[in-house]
Design a protein that fits this description.
With 110 residues, the protein is an all-alpha fold. The chain has two domains: 76 residues; 33 residues, no CATH class. Helix content is 67%, strand content 0%. The chain is built from five helices and no strands. The longest helix is centred in the middle third of the chain and has 32 residues. The two termini are 23 Å apart.
């Protein structure tokens, strides 16, 4: 889910944070701390969403609204079937064939 999560701090902001705390960051530190910053941002966003949903539930908000809000803010990634179907129905006029990854995805879906 990490790659699909909608809450990810931009690399420039992570680099700014690194510079403020550690001086000039190394590439390894950027990678390690960047991953940690992303995880922390995602955790915080998930906590905030759950707190908002809990508040809506406690005020007896319509359950359909709560479910719709959760689905809109934390969409599920497309299934393997949906990804393969998107590749198969793609217009290949600008690209003559599928990539190796595309073929592998379709094979996994089948």
């Amino acid at each position: 889910m990490t790659n699909q999560h909608p809450i990810t701090p931009p690399p420039e902001l992570v680099e700014q944070w690194l510079s403020e705390h550690y001086g000039t960051p190394t590439e390894e530190r950027k990678r390690l701390i960047g991953g940690l910053a992303t995880e922390a941002a995602q955790w915080g966003a998930d906590q905030e969403l759950e707190a908002c949903l809990w508040h809506l539930e406690s005020t007896r908000c319509n359950q359909i609204v709560i479910t719709t809000l959760r689905a809109a803010r934390r969409p599920k990634p497309p299934s393997l079937k949906e990804q393969a179907l998107a590749l198969v129905t793609h217009d290949f006029s600008d690209q003559p064939c599928l990539s190796k990854e595309g073929y592998a995805l379709i094979r996994r879906a089948l």
